[in-house]
Amino acid sequence: MTAVRKGLAKVEVALRWDPSPSGTPAHDLDIVAAVYSAADPRGVPVHLVHFGSRSPDGTITLNRDSHTGQGFGYDEVMTLELDRMSSELRRVVVGVVIQDTGGAEGRAKTFADIHGTGLRIREGHTDLALGGFGSVPNATAATVAEFTRDDSGAWSLDARLHGSEDGPDEFTRTMGALR
Questions:
Q1: 21-62: per-residue pLDDT in tens?
Q2: Please, what is the Cα angle at 71 between 68 and 74, to 5 degrees?
């Protein structure tokens, strides 16, 4: 028996990075997700999910949140249950921000300052995308995935990396317009 695939259902976005050198401020990277409606797919997000929050309907949760990158493997993990989202929600943009406003060096940290970065997007045990941030070394934030729902209700993934030099607040306001 075969089944017709209806697109992506439950997806995990995971992030890893190496801790900062001893005696220096910790590297704190965060996964964020912006959810957009069919009526305004590139405008203001219906909701924003980040550390300390989840989507109001419980379909997007941050399962693990690391402030240092210490641990084994992927230290920050977000789960998106796309198949449970309201049909009014048509687009989800996922990004990564570096939580640093410019310490002693007088400038914000960029991905070039943080070693061992890695990103994995998977559904079940199938890797949909793997990568790092080497192509955006001067960025302080980046969009890493865009999930869109088509007219049939099936979700798909565009996993292109787009860097941004905005701080966390500005990035979360504009991340849906970056593509």
A1: 777 777 888 999 999 999 888 888 999 998 878 789 999 998
A2: 95
CB 149 within 8 Å of CB 158: no
The three-class DSSP label of residue 99 is coil
Residue 51, class by beta-carbon neighbours within 10 Å (0-12 exposed, 13-18 middle, 19+ buried)?
Answer: middle
Distance separating alpha carbons of residues 166 and 98, to the nearest angstrom: 10
d(CA 97, CA 115): 15
Q: Which residues is 35 bridged to in the sheet?
A: 47, 92
- Using DSSP's 3-state secondary structure scheme, residue 177 falls into helix
> 96, 89, 97: which is closest to 147 by C-alpha?
89
Tokens of residue 56, six digits: 């109001």
Say which amino acid occupies 150. Answer: D
